[in-house]
Specification:
This protein is α/β, with parallel strands linked by helices. Helices cover 24% and strands 27% of the residues. It binds zinc ion (ZN). Zinc ion binds next to loops.
């Protein structure tokens, strides 16, 4: 009996596979951009051609913990759409409302991780005043350089990274350093029990055609780093047979289940 018991205990200890997945992943609508000229992202290609772009936030449940990946356009845009230098930004639903629909309060979200500090990704960071912000140090140094408007309040809880981070320490959710679009850009790799591996690109590429043709947007801070980061993501996608979800690729967004539905 004692031997059987110890065998069972050993089996339980030897089966960490259960713990190596996140429980749920919710895809949230964090805005829409009607862009005037897609060649901003694909220099010399599709010049003057408009493009419709999604803007996505992702909420991940890991045990009793929540991680929010990107915060989208600021919620105020739901009340008042804005014209930006690149197009017309709208928001069909507020992030706060989508969280409330799930019964999640901003103070329940322990970690907020952002791909980078452009306004369509950090619009609601200040809503999560008590969360720990997971961000590359290189991104903070760049975003808060003198003379630039601050993307969010700097006086807050932050974990400054210098490379990849295994967020929960079990390989289920990993921040990947993928610089190039900005100096401290990052992507997110998530492992789910039924759905398998998913790579959330951030702006490593803006839409499918740019990914397929490895085109580098004119605003990227390093073309060389952009190519290298995409090669890294492509390797991970191939190795893990991961789904590749490109944040601003509208056909990708439209093909996904949206919160309150979820992936598990
Ligand atoms: Zn961007």
């Amino acid at each position: 009996m004692r031997k059987l018991l110890s065998t069972v205990i050993l089996l339980i200890l030897a089966a960490p596979a259960w713990a190596q997945t996140a429980d749920r992943l919710y895809v949230m609508d964090c805005g829409h951009n009607s862009a005037k000229d897609q060649s901003r992202w694909s220099p010399g290609v599709n010049v003057g051609k408009p493009i419709e772009q999604s803007d996505t936030c992702t909420l991940i449940k890991h045990g009793a913990q929540w991680l929010l990946w990107d915060t989208g356009y600021q919620d105020a845009i739901a009340d008042q759409p804005v014209d930006t230098p690149v197009g017309h930004a709208t928001r069909a639903k507020k992030l706060a409302a989508q969280l409330a629909e799930l019964g999640v309060k901003p103070s329940d979200v322990g970690f907020v991780a952002i791909s980078h500090t452009h306004p369509d990704h950090v619009g609601n960071v200040d809503m999560f005043a008590t969360s720990t912000l997971l961000i590359q140090k290189a991104e903070i140094d760049w975003a808060f350089a003198t003379g630039k408007p601050a993307p969010f309040k700097k006086d807050r809880s932050m974990k400054l990274l210098a490379g990849d981070l295994d967020v929960f320490g079990d390989g289920s959710v990993t921040l990947l350093s993928t610089s190039g679009h900005t100096p401290g850009h990052q992507s997110l790799l998530v492992h789910l029990g039924k759905s398998g591996w998913v790579v959330l690109t951030g702006d490593a590429a803006h839409f499918r055609d740019n990914w397929d043709n490895d085109r580098v947007p004119s605003m990227n801070t390093s073309a060389e780093q952009t190519h290298a980061s995409r090669a890294l993501l492509a390797k991970i996608v191939a190795e893990k047979k991961a789904a590749l979800w490109i944040n601003h690729d509208l056909p990708t967004f439209e093909g996904l289940k949206h919160s309150p539905q979820f992936y598990d």
